[in-house]
Amino acid sequence: MSSTETLLGGALLPLVEDFYTIQGEGFHTGKPAYFIRLGGCDVGCKWCDAKYTWNPKLFPPTDIETVVRRAVECSAKSIVITGGEPLLYPLDPLTKRLKEEGLQIFLETSGSHPFSGTFDWVCLSPKRKQPPLPQAFDKADELKVIIETAEDFEWAEQNAERVSDKCLLYLQPEWSRSEVMMESIVEYAKSHPKWSISIQSHKFMHIP
Questions:
Q1: 104 touches 79 (CB < 8 A)
Q2: Strands 168-173 and 12-22
Q3: What per-residue confidence (pLDDT) applies to 6?
Q4: Could you read off the pLDDT of 15-46 as tens digits, one per residue?
Q5: What is the mean pLDDT of residues 184-200?
């Protein structure tokens, strides 16, 4: 039986956690939002700060109606769907229900799997190990490239060439290398002002 059949076409999803917090990264930094984190990722970045999400078998399929009910009870009207890699799963049923409740939906993705679902904002964070599919670049409202070493600036530019002119561009230091790389990132952004800098502000606020 395929995973889609097991999940009843997206009526069930491997939920890691859902919680109300403040968005800490990218364009929507500082915005209160309800996070829906799905389990499963086949990209496997060594510096990932959510490695506990990688194995979807650890997270039994959850009825999306349970998730939607909790999201609606939250005072914020913004939803962030993240992972893991959420596009591993059919997201149309979940996003349809969230939209029916009048909620804004933001997606965080590597873009390495086909798109499903309806979103108000797509944050594309491309990874070298498993690059985005071509359709991901067309859908991106925000390109957020993680900078671990100086070589990542070239990777950032390669991806920036493929998104639309309306897509916002962000360089974000990999957390464990932020002190080492921040000066270079600042100077790069100053020399290439199409880029803005994103930091993981939630870690400074000590919130999830």
A1: yes
A2: unpaired
A3: 80
A4: 999 999 999 999 999 999 999 999 999 988 88
A5: 98
Q: ∠ CA(149), CA(133), CA(16), 5° rounding?
A: 75
Question: 112, 127 in Cβ contact below 8 A?
Answer: yes
What is the pTM assigned to this prediction? 0.94
- Residues 113, 136, 126, 26, Cα dihedral to 10°: -120
Considering the domain 3-205, what is its CATH architecture? Alpha-Beta Barrel (3.20)
From the centroid of its chain, how far is CA 122?
8
Give CA angle at 131 (98, 81), nearest 5°. Answer: 15
Q: Report the distance separating Cα 179 and Cα 181, nearest Å.
A: 6
Q: Which residues lie closer than 8 Å to 51 by C-beta, 6 or more apart?
A: none
